[in-house]
Specification:
One of its GO terms (molecular function) is acid phosphatase activity. InterPro entries: LMW_PTPase (IPR050438), Ptyr_pPase (IPR023485), Ptyr_pPase_sf (IPR036196), Tyr_phospatase_low_mol_wt (IPR017867). The protein has 4 helices and 4 strands; from the N terminus they run βαβαβαβα. By secondary structure, it is α/β, with parallel strands linked by helices. A 4-stranded parallel beta sheet has the order 2-1-3-4. α1 links the parallel β1 and β2. The longest helix has 26 residues. It is globular and about 40 Å long. The two termini are 17 Å apart. The relative contact order is 0.20. The mean pLDDT is 93.
Length: 169
């Protein structure tokens, strides 16, 4: 398959969950040698509240402590992005509802919860809760594990099949 994939992750403010998801997913794609199959991996907000801001310090700390580089400035998803990406993943139902409301007819993007790729429902919720108001790092550590699992499952089930990869992920 010659068509490259593009994936966007979206949360409310683009400073906690979605930049973490982007960083984790990008690292996994690179580690698996799949970068040449992706046109774009990015993250956005449904709100313009934090435009231009760096990720939350706790997001940066958890990513870096797990060996995942993160560098991002918050930005808001635009309607035109729905035709740029194959997949646009919201972190919770509110994100998905807002994304769906602005998804143009016949848009390229498949919009849904990133948690649709949850193969461990006893261990992880399908919704990625916003850790912004939490104290400490434990909630950020949990969502890192959650997003890492969803990334693995998406790459294993969706990408491997779509790209018809011979090697098992």
């Amino acid at each position: 398959m010659d068509q490259k994939l593009s994936v966007a992750f979206v949360c409310f403010g683009n400073i906690c969950r979605s930049p973490m998801a982007e960083a984790i997913f990008r690292k996994k794609v690179e580690d698996l040698g799949l970068s040449h199959h992706f046109d774009c991996i990015d993250s956005f907000a449904v709100s313009g509240l934090n435009k231009g801001k760096d990720p939350d310090a706790r997001t940066v700390h958890v990513c870096e402590s797990r060996g995942v580089p993160i560098s991002h400035k918050a930005k808001q998803l635009s309607i035109s992005d729905h035709n740029k990406f194959n997949y646009i993943f919201g972190m919770d139902e509110n994100n998905v509802n807002r994304l769906s409301a602005y998804n143009p007819r016949k848009a390229k993007a498949r919009v849904g919860l990133f948690g649709e790729w949850n193969a461990k429902p006893a261990e992880f919720e399908t919704v990625v809760d916003d850790p912004f108001r939490s104290e400490g790092l434990s909630e950020f550590e949990h969502i890192f594990d959650q997003l890492s699992h969803f990334s693995d499952e998406f790459l294993r089930s969706e990408v491997q099949g779509r790209l018809k990869l011979k090697a098992k992920l």
